[in-house]
Write a structure and sequence with these properties.
By secondary structure, the protein is of the alpha/beta class. The chain is built from 13 helices and 27 strands. Helix 1 runs parallel beside helix 2 and helix 5 runs parallel beside helix 6. The chain starts with a strand and ends with a helix.
């Protein structure tokens, strides 16, 4: 047996991230072996999970993975207690109107009890109508508990009694209004490293979890047959060193991408395009990850030696994957600041999400699943990849691809096409000889 819970909400901004972080911290302080997961393609919430548990948090995404793959991925990461944070609203999936790839789809696939976190501010009896609606759509009867966020301690006992009597679902506590909000920016929450008082905020929520939440009750509804699986072994093995951008400007990564590369024998060598003077020595490839280069464009511009090191290496055919922020960094400019200059073009803020959502990338007879989430666009976007959206007829061309490189705005999910990654690593192997 193990324990698993999916923390969901009626919509974004309900408080599920705050509750999840506090619950993870409380469970850890109890001495339990805790693992964290995030539904969907989000990078930032898993960073907050890791800031609490100090181990990677894994994305569970039913666009990137089929159901069998998702169960296997979860099973390889399963611990004694497993907390899965949902994405958007519980039933919001592909194209917004599909259940597919929603948090609910993940819960059904894993047979995972759901705790619904509801922002109760400004509501009283209307909460009953909201809860009735969510229960009515719960065809698998997975919603097992309610937590009320921003709830008055005086009103809570009456609301708990009314919900349990009229809706037939247990209420496991509440969180009062707290002044610990984590500010949002256009790509999501602030990063954990940007919050000097993050640990104080976490401790504040944790105290409220201990004071106002029935933790034992939540754990009791989460008991399920373990899905734990052994780590898979890859037959193909490379002895390669790949430089891997990792600093405050380049910080977006999928745990599954890192895991696949390491299973294939790759040693990832972190480096900072902001702070280091040149690429690491003795490397056979380069990974330029996503992040926020636009927020650090002045610092990146000042590091001329690193920009020159990367440009010369790529002009000498060093294999490279560059996605979103890494792709922007390869341009001549981000707005008014000089970048690497491999791509003759400039990236500028459009003021709105550009080509947003899940996508298929097709090029060199390969198809990769990816996610696009950016406000910037390029004057030299490229046209070597055919991009299409699921549940839509919309297509467009962008990016650059060859046997030894792929540059685009899309965030790649490597396990969606292991053959492409193996082919890329083969080009790294050739380069190193």
């Amino acid at each position: 047996m193990s324990i698993r819970l999916l923390i969901a909400a009626p919509g974004s901004g309900s408080g599920k991230t705050t509750f999840t972080i506090g619950l993870l911290s409380a469970l850890k302080q109890r001495g339990l072996d805790v693992g964290a997961f995030k539904c969907g393609p989000d990078y930032i919430d898993p960073m907050f999970h890791k800031s609490v548990l100090h181990i990677p948090s894994t994305n569970l995404d039913l666009f990137f993975n089929n159901e069998e793959e998702l169960v296997s991925l979860y099973g390889r990461k399963e611990r004694e207690v497993n907390v899965i944070e949902g994405v958007m609203g519980l039933y919001d999936g592909l194209a917004g109107m599909e259940e597919e790839a929603s948090s609910y789809h993940v819960a059904k696939t894993l047979d995972c009890p759901i705790v619904l976190v509801i922002n109760a501010r400004g509501m009283a009896r209307s909460l009953l109508a909201l809860i009735h609606g969510f229960l009515a759509m719960d065809s698998s009867h997975l919603i097992r508990g309610i937590v009320l966020n921003q709830m008055s301690g005086m009103l809570y006992p009456k609301m708990k009694e009314a919900i349990e009597k009229e809706c037939g679902v247990s209420v496991y506590g509440y969180l009062p209004k707290m002044d610990i909000a984590i500010s949002s920016r256009y790509l999501g929450l602030q990063l954990p490293e940007e919050l000097e008082d993050l640990q104080d905020r976490i401790e504040c929520v944790t105290k409220q979890i201990f004071a106002c939440i029935d933790i034992d009750g939540l754990l009791s509804i989460g008991k399920k047959k373990s899905l734990k699986q052994e780590e898979e072994k890859e037959e193909t093995h490379f002895d390669l060193r790949l430089a891997y951008s990792k600093d405050e400007a380049f910080c977006f990564e999928y745990d599954a991408n890192v895991e696949l590369l390491e299973k294939l024998g790759v040693t990832l060598v972190p480096f900072s395009p902001i702070h280091d003077k040149s690429l690491p020595e003795n490397i056979q490839g380069l990974l330029l990850t996503g992040g926020y280069p636009e927020l650090y464009k002045e610092e990146l511009q000042k590091n001329e030696s690193m920009r020159s090191s990367i440009r010369l290496a790529l002009e000498s055919n060093l294999p490279c994957l560059a996605e979103c922020g890494g792709f922007m960094y390869l341009h001549k400019k981000i707005e008014d600041c000089d970048m690497v200059g491999l791509i003759e073009g400039e990236c500028k803020n459009t003021g709105k999400l550009t080509r947003f959502g899940y996508v298929y990338l097709q090029g060199n007879d390969q198809i990769m699943k990816a996610h696009s989430f950016h406000y910037y666009d390029s004057s030299c976007l490229g046209n070597e990849l055919l991009v299409s959206k699921p549940k839509s007829s919309r297509t467009w061309r962008c990016g650059y691809i060859g046997k030894d490189h792929l540059y685009s705005f899309a965030h790649l999910y490597y396990p969606s096409n292991k053959e492409f990654i193996v082919s890329f690593l083969e080009s790294c192997e050739v380069y190193g000889k």
